[in-house]
Amino acid sequence: MHVACLESLDNLVSLKTSWDALSGNNPFRGSLWQHTWAQHFCGSHDPTRSLRVLLVSSEKQQPTSDISEVVAILPCYEHRTFARGRVLRLIGDGEVCSDHLGLLCKEHQSEEASDAIVEYLMSREDWDCLDFTYFDENDEASRNLTNALADHGCFLERSPGPNCWSIELPATWDEFLAMQSKSHRKHIRRLERSAAKLGSVEWCLCEGADTFEQAWQQLVDLHQQRRLSLGEPGCFASESWARFHQEIAQQMLAAGQLQLSHLKLQGKPAAAEYQFTSSTATYAYQGGIDPNRLDEQPGRLSLSRTIQYAIGQGHSRYDLMRGDEPYKPHWRAEPNATVRIQATPPRTVARWRYAAFDGMRRAGRIVKKATGLLG
């Protein structure tokens, strides 16, 4: 197998067909999400970051977009810092919080592709460590990559990441209600009746560019109002986060993968859901609720409506994504473990740099603990 390192966005655009074929039908692993992330967070937007996408092909030549030639893609970028040097990270990480990242690979070829990638990395001295957040623990391709790093002498540090929660959806809403506890099932039905008594209850889905701007602003307003009421800045307070999402949301809408919905009570927006879809799943990424209407539980009602819609679309999974919020198991979601992988190559300078960074990290923890004990 042949490994090439792609360092320009133009190279990525030419690989769209191959990239999407390897993405596993997951929007966060697809070319649209990852290429847009690279445009917003690498290169001119941040000169400390540059693309380092590793491409494994079956031919010993520069691969084209022909899927028969592309075996695997490891979507990376290099982040240069004083403390850690040249760090390889996964495209989509950081404040955007993309879930389910990892090695994209053809089925049954991940062991061979992983060995090829690691052999390529071992032949180069232009990286000091690798820091991948987060792999799904049950992702075979990413697990094989981790094993290959260890087999080639890298020092590995594994640490648990946040759980990703998902609901396995049945074929009908009645079957879904039957999955719930008796008390929760009664609560869902009572919530629907209470909302109906208030008057108009309307669930609206943004289905075209002509309604996007208004729907997006309602999401921003409801999200920020709720987070500020909790003493938090809210995601849209970050200009880089807000810019990325306003663009990717419109691109996902054009691609038929955006699910931007609003729940209106008595004609006024009370909750919003910012979600993405594949042909088999709904991904509940972000949302917002009116903090002045918490007694009416618009968040629960909105979640109920989006689950009903997902079932109606024939989806088999409702992905609530990372975070151990207590409402998730209440809806019969199950946790899926993730892991952070840090790897240091068997080179003297890289090991020294890791030891220095690890020492500073440990010292910081001691100081923090001592400060806490002192009040």
UniProtKB/TrEMBL annotation:
Residues 182-328 form the BioF2-like acetyltransferase domain. Pfam families: Acetyltransf_6. InterPro entries: Acyl_CoA_acyltransferase, BioF2-like_GNAT_dom. This is BioF2-like acetyltransferase domain-containing protein. It comes from Adhaeretor mobilis.
